[in-house]
Design goal:
mainly beta
């Protein structure tokens, strides 16, 4: 499913949910489920290679290769548990694949006319790329988080979010030889959109 199809699907689901449950406009109904995505607007990234000098870059606009969706379950009206599971292939070449597993915990605060919903998300990424008939395997472990301020319309929500990400470890295994890989640390501003069902 490409990015355009994913966006159409989430907004269609949110519209149906909004029509079906327009009478209940509270974000954080105990026992409900939220589906959301975060679209980067501005990101500052620090890249630390295994060898050599660190570099940095600024990215404006969404990174379509890494955006995904997360699901959150409202354990109480304030506490959420959930996560994201993302699979991609062909990003680093014809015979490449990448799997990301990222559980998430969040806590909701009512602030003014909106909701502050900070979330913390450890993640594990595993990847495989074929180089000269050899499978090169990679793994990354780190922690990400976001602090969005959200407004609600029906069961849909949206708002700006501060984001961060830090790779704690990055390993590359090439034919049994293990070495360190590139690590990324980033902070940014994004738009979070989603719906509660």
């Amino acid at each position: 499913m490409n990015r355009s199809t994913q966006l159409i699907a989430i907004f269609a689901a949110m519209s149906l949910s909004s029509a079906a449950r327009a009478e209940d406009e509270s974000l954080g109904r105990e026992g409900s489920v939220s589906l959301r995505t975060t679209i980067p607007v501005f990101t500052y990234e620090g890249l630390k290679p295994a060898t050599g000098d660190s570099t940095s870059r600024i990215v404006l606009g969404p990174n379509l290769a890494v955006n995904g969706f997360a699901v959150d379950y409202w354990v109480t009206k304030d506490v959420t548990l959930g996560g994201a599971l993302q699979y991609g292939s062909g990003e680093a070449g014809k015979d490449s694949s990448r799997l990301t597993i990222a559980p998430v915990v969040g806590y909701r605060f009512a602030v003014g006319g909106g909701t502050l919903w900070p979330k913390l998300q450890p993640y594990y990424v595993t990847s495989t790329t074929k180089v000269a008939s050899t499978d090169v395997k990679g793994s990354i472990f780190g922690v990400a988080g976001e602090v969005p301020y959200l407004w609600q319309r029906g069961t849909c929500f949206y708002g700006p979010a501060l984001t961060f990400r830090s790779d704690f470890s990055s390993k590359v295994d090439n034919n049994g030889a293990s070495s360190d890989g590139e690590k990324v640390t980033s902070v940014g501003l994004a738009l979070e959109v989603g719906g509660t069902f």
